[in-house]
Design goal:
- By secondary structure, the protein is α/β, with parallel strands linked by helices.
- It has 3 domains: 19-127, no CATH class; 145-158 and 271-391, Nucleotidyltransferase, domain 5 (2-Layer Sandwich); 163-253, no CATH class.
- 48% of the residues lie in helices and 9% in strands.
- Strands 1, 2, 3, 4, 5 and 6 form a 6-stranded mixed beta sheet that branches.
- Helix 6 packs across helix 14 (394-427).
Amino acid sequence: MRPKSEPKQVERELFQSELEQIIDLNHPLVRLGTSLDWESLESVLGATYHPTQGAPGTPTRLMVALHYLKYEHDLSDEDVVLHWVENPYWQYFSGERYFQHRLPIDASRMTRWRQRLGEAGAEQMLRETIAAGIRTGAIRSADLKRINVDTTVQTKAVRYPTDARLYHRSRERLVKQARREGVAIKQSYQRVGKRLLLASSRYAHARQMKRARACTRKLRTQLGRVVREIERQVSQPSEQLSRLLATAHRIHAQQRHDKNKVYSVHESEVECIAKGKAGKPYEFGNKVSVAVTSRGGWLVGARSFTGNPYDGHTLAAQMNQVGNMIGDRVAEAHVDMGYRGHDYAGAVMVHVDKRTRGRTPKALWRWMKRRAAVEPSIGHLKNEHRFERNRLKGISGNAINAMLAAAAMNFHKLLRAFGLHFLRSLLGIGSVQLFSHIPATLKIRKVVG
C-alpha cells in the first residue's frame, strides 16, 4: 500500500524538540533538501506500491534520503540507519519535523525497497540530482554540451574463483538445499572436502602443483557424486534445486580454456573481464558505461551491461540514457580508441581520440585532452561511493548499484556547491574576499637573511 501523506498543517508536539530550533538552516544538507523535488520522486517511485492492499509503506522521502546518504558516505544498510538516529541534519533531510530517538526502519526494509525500486527508479534518483543541479545553478547549460564516455568494470563481491573453491562451494550449496527439501544425502563430504580445499590452497602456495591438482581432482569427483545422488533421488527438483544442479553441471564440465565459464555459484552471471592492468589483469563483475561532463565532472549516465560487450557496441545505449536524463543538451561526446567502429548514429558528434599534433584543430585538441578526466571520476565512484565490490544481487542489482553510485557522486558535488555558500555566509564575506580576512601577522613572510 502506498505510504500515507502527511498533512500540510501539522500540529505542534508539546514535549518534542523541533529540528528547526536545533540545527542551522544554512547547512548544505538542509539547503539541498529544500532544492530536491520530493513530490516528483514520490509520484514516480510511489507507483510501485499497490494503491489499496497491504499495510502503509515507508515514506518515499525517507527511503530516498537514506539511499542518497548510504551511497554518499559508503555505508551499509545497518550503519546508515544507526547514523540517522544520531544526526539531526540527516533526519531533517529525510522529512522529519521533530528529533527522533529510535530507528526509523529495520535495515532489511531497504533491501526490499530496492527490489521494488528497480532500474527505472534508480534512474529517476540519478535524474533528480542532475535536475537539482540545473535548478540551483550548480550545473550550467554550457557544462552539458560536451561529455566524456568510458567503460569500466563494476566488480562483484565474490571470492576469487579457483577450480577447487568452485567445486567445494557448489557441493556445499547442493547438500544444504537438498537437505532443506528432505533429501537424505548418503555422503556429504563436509569434513573431507574442507580439508582438501585447505590442502589444495597450501600446496599451490608452496608451488607443489601436482599435489594441488590431485586435491582439486578429488573435489571434482566429490561434486559429481553428490550431483548424481541427488538426481537419482529427486525426479522433479524444485526451482532453486534445479538451478543449483544446472550450475553444478556447468562447473563440473568446464575446462581451463572454455568460454562462458561460471565464476561464482550464487552469481552465475559474473564475467571475467581483462582490462590490461598490471596490478589487476582480470576483474570479476560486469561492464558499466559512464558518461561524465567535460566541465564539472557531473555524472549524466551510468549504464550496466550483461556479458562482456565491445566498448563501441555500448555507446548507442549509453547515449540513449543520456538523452533520457538531460534531453538534447549534448552536442559532442569524446571517447577513447576502444570505441572505434561504434554503433551510435545519432545527432551528437562523437570524437574518437585520434589526436595527431599539427592536424587536429587546436580547440578540439583541448577538449580531447579533457577526455582523460573521466578516469578520476571512475576512481571516486569506486573508492567512495560503493561502486567497487557490488553487494546487490543479480543483474538488476548491478544496474541499481551503478546508478545509485553515480547519483551519490552528484549528491556529493551538490553538497560541496552548497557548502561553499555556507562557508561564505559563516565568514560574512564574498567569494573574492574569501581569505582576505586573515590577519597580516598570520601570513607567511619571506625572511631576508
